[in-house]
Design a protein that fits this description.
Number of domains of chain A: 2
Largest interface: A-B, 19 and 25 residues
CATH architecture of the largest domain in chain A: 3-Layer(aba) Sandwich
Number of strands of chain B: 6
Oligomer: heterodimer
Helix content of chain A: 25-40%
Number of helices of chain A: 11
Structural class of chain A: alpha+beta
Radius of gyration of chain B: 18 Å
Number of strands of chain A: 18
Order of helices and strands of chain B: EHEEEHEHEHHHHHHH
Strand content of chain B: 15-25%
Order of helices and strands of chain A: EEEHEEEEEEHHEEHHEEEHEHEHEEHHH
Chain lengths: 377, 234
């Protein structure tokens, strides 16, 4: 199941009003926009809602009106309106049938499959009914929504991505990893779960994008000493580049190399566990050179195509824009607090015509061709 | 010094045009500088010198050939650079890009019509040329070079292989000339691959006298390119 439509607004009618409407998504998406246009915010909206639905971060926010539609065997729509940290409306519609309809004070009706009828309910108004009423017998339709929220992974490619996260050696205790935390040490559980297959996959992918490494291990970092612990008790990722006769720890790697490595570790683990999920990657390619950035994005797109994963990336980097076909693009154009989205679904003619200009994808964005096309220029 | 800037989509065009200038001038009184697009540490686009035929010794002609790294960046790089090149006393900017793989033959009229779209007119003259469908069509048409790649590759074998005669048929009609070349070289267990070594092997054995005197007469877009070069070298 993947997200195919998003409407969102917050603080309607106030100076802080912000909205994004009619945002259609596909399996592979590159969100493009100027600084502060709403790219990162769009990803945050999806991630935050996923966290709410899955209960990962259940704290409601002060304002937010969401309408989401999903692509699946069935048509699933979820509407959620929040105000003052409370739910004021929540609906779930499947194949045009409203299965959950809840209003103020947490009062509503919910369809119970076993009794084939609607029942009245009331939940506290500071929790989602789709989470609080989760019951795979009576309300199985919540499960796919829960799964969607639970399996969202959100990465900020411009951040540390765990470079400064090491763990203390505890051989008797299994690693406890929070897969929703982009800084978590996924390499260790990847090795524990899949052994050499996992390492080989990471090495192959790193080579594919231009980092010629031959060894990737999770091992003690002798140079790191922690007060009160014997030397060699701190564990981290170590790689060896083919052209350099020296091992490099994650602390000594360039930021770009580590970001690529960390992202590939996370994504390959998710793919090997075969859990369909939604990958949100903010500022993809940030800090990488052109060739590696292009290769990484192509690799991610290929992996998404071959799996059930929905890929949603953002960028304002011209090299990244030039390397991703326009068919995957959604340009966010913000005027005041209102964001419009231009993509193949709503502007197909303009997108198709642009290639004849002979200009680069970046110019499609930079000249705002996406808004008017040839007609008004 | 007369200065010309040529923006091309890749290494093939860069090596070919560089060699063409050397052959047409005898390599004398000309400096050719090849540059390649790169990403700066701050994320901007710039060009890095990768090759130059000689140092500055007061040559009469200076030709800058920039590899833009893709057909869709040729025009954009020209638009971005034309003000600087005007200030640096270049007299003209040429662009050269393939039609393939983004377009078919049916798209060519529209593509050619829109090549001037958004190209600034307040700087030095700019002209963007197409290679139909690929620059390799010109190599394909220079049929004497096959035997220089391998003596076992004869024109008869090539005709049989392609069901097409590149010595007289319209090479611009071929959909994938680079693939054609690869298939031809395979006759001798060799390959045409787009790396510097393989491209150079072909570019070095082409007969530029034949290209200049003969092939241009049956390949209109090649003729347009050579005419521009002739004007510059006058």
């Amino acid at each position: 199941m993947y997200l195919k439509y998003l409407d969102y607004s917050e603080f309607d009618g106030t100076p802080d009003e912000w909205s994004i409407e009619g945002f259609t998504l596909k399996k592979i998406n590159l969100i493009v926009g100027k600084n502060a246009s709403g790219k990162t915010r769009a990803l945050n909206i999806i991630a935050n809602l996923g966290n709410l639905i899955s209960g990962y971060k259940p704290q409601l926010y002060s304002s937010g009106n969401h309408l989401l539609k999903f692509n699946n065997d069935t048509r699933l729509e979820y509407l959620l309106k929040l105000k003052d940290n409370k739910v004021i409306e929540e609906k779930l519609i499947k194949d045009n049938k409203t299965l959950l309809d809840r209003g103020m004070n947490g009062i509503g009706k919910i369809f119970a499959v076993k009794i084939n009828d609607f029942i009245d309910f009331q939940t506290p108004d500071n929790v989602l009914a789709c989470s609080a009423r989760r019951d795979s017998v009576q309300h199985p339709y919540f499960e796919e929504l829960f799964q969607w929220g639970d399996l969202i992974r959100h990465y900020h490619f411009g951040s540390q991505l765990g470079k400064d996260h090491l763990i203390i050696s505890t051989p008797d205790k299994p690693a406890k990893v929070d897969l929703k935390d982009e800084n978590s040490i996924v390499f260790k559980i990847g090795l524990e779960s899949f052994g050499e297959e996992f390492t080989e996959l990471i090495i192959d992918d790193m080579r594919h994008i231009g980092y010629d490494i031959e060894i990737a291990v999770y091992a003690p970092l002798p140079s790191i000493k922690v007060q009160g612990l014997p030397a060699g008790e701190v564990i981290g990722i170590i790689v060896k580049e083919s052209s350099v006769n020296k091992h490099i720890s994650q602390l000594d790697m360039s930021q770009g190399m580590f970001r690529a490595l960390a992202l590939l570790i996370h994504i390959n683990y998710n793919l090997l566990t075969k859990t369909p999920n939604c990958l949100l990657i903010d500022d993809i390619g940030e800090g990488l050179d052109f060739e590696r950035s292009t290769a990484l994005i192509k690799l991610l797109i290929d992996k998404a195509k071959e799996s059930a994963v929905q890929l949603i990336m953002t960028t304002n980097d011209r090299f990244t824009m030039n390397s991703v076909p326009l068919e995957y693009w959604s340009v966010i154009h913000r005027v005041g607090g209102k964001c419009r989205v231009f993509n193949y679904d709503n502007s197909r003619k303009i997108f198709d015509e642009f290639v004849y200009t002979g200009l680069s994808n970046f110019d499609f964005f930079a000249t705002e061709f996406y808004e008017k096309g040839f007609d008004e220029k | 010094m007369k200065k010309l800037a040529i923006f091309v989509e890749g290494l093939t065009e860069q090596l070919f045009i560089s060699k063409l200038f050397i052959e047409l001038t005898g390599g004398k009184n000309i400096k050719i500088e090849c540059q390649k697009a790169r990403k700066t540490p701050r994320g901007n686009r710039s060009f890095q010198v990768i090759d130059a035929t000689s140092t500055d010794t007061g040559q009469k002609y200076y030709v800058l050939i920039r590899d833009c790294g893709g057909e869709s960046t040729v025009k954009s790089d020209i638009v971005d650079s034309c003000a600087d090149l005007t200030r640096s006393n270049y007299e003209k900017i040429l662009g050269l890009r393939d039609v393939s793989p983004s377009f078919t033959h049916a798209d060519i009229p529209k593509l050619e019509r829109l090549l001037t779209y958004m190209v600034p007119t307040r700087f030095i003259p700019i002209r963007i040329l197409l290679a139909v469908m690929e620059c390799e069509a010109w190599f394909l048409a220079e049929t004497t070079h096959y035997e220089k790649i391998d003596s076992s590759i004869t024109l008869d074998k090539v005709r049989d292989l392609l069901s097409f005669d590149p010595s007289c048929n319209n090479v611009e009609a071929r959909m994938h000339p680079a693939d054609d070349l690869n298939r031809i070289y395979h006759l001798a267990g060799k390959a045409y691959i787009k790396d510097r070594k393989r491209i150079s092997r072909t570019v070095e054995v082409l007969d530029y006298g034949l290209i200049y005197l003969d092939l241009r007469n049956r390949i209109p877009r090649l003729d347009e390119l050579i005419r521009e070069i002739d004007v510059f070298l006058q």
